[in-house]
Amino acid sequence: MAYSFRHLIEHKRDGGVLRSGEIRWIIAEYTNEHLPDYQMAAMLMAIFKEGLDGHELEVWTDAMLHSGQVMDLSHIDAPKVDKHSTGGVGDKVSIPLAPMVAACGAAVPMMSGRGLGHTGGTVDKLESIPGFRTQLTPDEFASIVEKTGLVLAGQSESLAPADGAIYSLRDATGSVPSIPLIASSIMSKKLAVGLGALVLDVKVGRGAFMKTLDRARLLAETIVGIGKTHGTPVVAVLTDMNQPLGRMVGNANEIAESVEVLRGGGARDLVEVVYRLGEEMLMLAGVESERADARTRLEKAVASGAAFEKLEQVTIAQGGDPAVLHDPSLLPMAENEHVVIARESGYVVRVDAFDIGTAALRLGAGRERKEDAIDPAVGIAIEVKVGDEVTAGQPLARLRWNDEGRLANALPITESAFEVSEHLGTPLVYGEVR
User: Catalytic one among 94, 185, 188, 258?
Assistant: First the structure.
């Protein structure tokens, strides 16, 4: 049955409920490029404003899930568990986390996304490794998981293609921070790869799409509910995103920081989130039943070098150059540097994640339009964290840049991201939803 898409837009815009057949028609027509971007953008904005009820969300997710091939990884004996983040600044957690968990005996069939708005994307970061292929066929995806216990891929044309198309359009049209759109996006692509369980990292704060704890809990509950509907256990951990996670914001520089974590180093906040999510993954997969045992197993995987070797294996399997993992200085890095310094002495009370993410985007580390190219060499190194004591003239951040005009656009917002005054701290983990 054919529908009038304009009438469906108007119906949803005015608070109406879309019927199952209408939703499946919308997803199929857009996936098959029978609907123009401008009309789908209008529908997404209507959903952004009016939401989707429980039944609409279930059908919307299912339609995106079945817009392409649904994989069967049942022939892989290891328990299959994945992790997903709702998006943050400096959030390179997946890159060290997935190899750590895979080195502990679970299979991690990870399908990740590109950057959205001011937040970075795992796929964009991985593609700063020379030769690294994130666009895999389903057969390649399954083969790499079976061979290495891990795959780090983006969305392909055959796995949840509707989400791939809608994902880019949401980014370019300001409709990203929608609970039903975020929830259906995450779960359609995760369910498409046949995982057995999912750990969700829901970011909360200025640099997140969920600015408040209440909104973050609602998103977590929504995704946990979708998982239950499809028989897939989901645990959501709510973590802070008021300041960037770790020290690096960009693409290639975040790969370097990820390698540092796998070598046993890394910023305290980044390491804490990686291990907390890793514990949840191992317990949800049934590899360990106690949190302390899961932590010990992860620490041993890092200390022995097994986790780093797992990243090296998957890099080679996906066509990447492993030399940059052994020597991160070989990664792309812009030659030009600008240092932002403290203008007064005191304690750092704010490192605004939204401002830093926006500044990195303006440097070229993200996309302002759907068709924009990423510059993997640019980025921002955060020299201080909230609670640190600083003196006037001390570096707060270092901007690596290639285009002087882009630097001019990024610099003022970077400078405004920092506030030095009295000591103030915020929690890193707010809670969890099961």
Answer: 185
From the list 121, 127, 52, the residue with the least C-alpha distance to 84 is 121
* Active-site residue, 84 included: yes
- Among the listed residues 62, 91, 163, 201, the single catalytic one is 163
The sheet with strand 389-390 has its strands ordered as 389-390, 346-351, 418-421
Q: Quote the CA–CA distance of 226 and 100 in Å, as a whole number.
A: 27
Distance from C-alpha of 194 to C-alpha of 267, rounded to nearest angstrom: 33
Q: Please confirm, yes or no, whether 67 is among the known catalytic residues.
A: no
Number of Cβ within 10 Å of residue 385's Cβ equals 16
Render pLDDT for 16-49 as a digit per residue (tens, 0 to 9): 999 999 999 999 999 999 999 999 999 999 999 9
Q: What is the dihedral of CA 120, 126, 127, 131, to 10 degrees?
A: 170
| 188 part of the active site | no
d(CA 281, CA 234): 10
Closest C-alpha among 220, 244, 236, 256 to residue 376 = 256
Residues 145, 68: Cα–Cα separation, whole Å:
20
Does residue 14 sit within a domain? yes
pLDDT digits (tens, 9 = 90+) for 251-290: 999 999 999 999 999 999 999 999 999 999 999 999 999 9
Q: Residues 86, 46: one domain?
A: no
Q: Which of 189, 217, 310, 406 is catalytic?
A: 189
Residue 226 pLDDT greater than 90, yes or no: yes
How do strand 379-382 and strand 395-401 relate by DSSP bridges? Answer: antiparallel
For residue 1, the model assigns a pLDDT of 59
Q: What is the pTM of this model?
A: 0.88
Nearest to 57 by CA among 43, 72, 47: 47
Among residues 125, 170, 276, 400, the one annotated as catalytic is 170
Q: Which domain holds residue 200?
A: 81-328
pLDDT band at residue 156 under the 50/70/90 scheme: confident
CA 361 to chain centre: 15
End position of a domain, from candidates 277, 296, 328: 328
Handedness of CA 64, 66, 68, 70 (dihedral sign): positive
Residue 426 lies in a domain: no
How many folded domains does the chain comprise?
Answer: 3
- Which residue is catalytic, options 11, 84, 217, 276? 84
